[in-house]
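As agreed, record passed on underneath.
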Amino acid sequence: MLSVTFVRHGETVANVGRIIQGHSHGELTERGISMAEHLGRHLSEEKFTRVFSSDLKRCHDTTRHILKHSSDGDVPEDLIVLDQVLREVSHTHGELTERGISMAEHLGRHLSEEKFTRVFSSDLKRCHDTTLHILKQSKDADVQEDCIVLDQILREMFCGDLEHQPQSEMFKLFNQTGLHFPHVQIPGGESFQDVKARTEKFFNMLCNLVDAKEGREENVLVVTHGAWLMCFLHCLVDLKKNEAIDLIDFEEKFCSMPAHNTATTKMTINKQADNGRRKVVVKQVHATDHLPEDLK
């Protein structure tokens, strides 16, 4: 069985300015760092076996702030996988605000008891920064900064012509086309279906870990982006409809719920059953109980 905790990166400067970040790296605000630190303390007892992050800086920094609160000491950087599949809708990196940093630190403290076996993050800076702020709260000595996997598969949706533009430009596009997300196609950007295909690729990779011959229990941390998470939840619904998975304790209304900065989504993924399906049990969606009221 594999347990996985998905995290949205901490608040960034662009979040505060309502700027579309996409594949830009982004900088955490002080608030964003605090968010990641809170989460790191919250997860400090988790024993993560793997850590995945979007390769963008806002996710990587969030991951580092989370892992530094591990109860067993500092987290090696090579545990973090920076993955482009975890990237955001917009590919700008982004900077965490002070509030975003605070969010990530709150989440790190909240998760400080978690024992993650792997950590994945979007490779965009706003996710990487969030991951770092979370992990620095970890109490697990085996989870070090150098074990974060920064992966482009975790990147946010690419917003093409709207990269670095005010969010109001997105609403202008909605008015011009008469379509809204996820149905609108952004000029020069990725579609909702493009990103959903990336999320399914990542889900299949997690399933491969579950089915690996060694069969060890995995506890995975993944730091990524808001729209990526929305696409991932839609992907799970599609897999359920196609009878590839049994999706337990999940309601379709979760797909339209926005993810707050450093919100956590937890689930377990089991080995494939004799009927060809695997059970996915959802524990929580976009939880923010690690944050104090002034950061929610």
Q: What stands out?
A: The mean pLDDT is 88. Residues 192-211 form the longest helix (20 residues). The chain has one domain: 2-291.
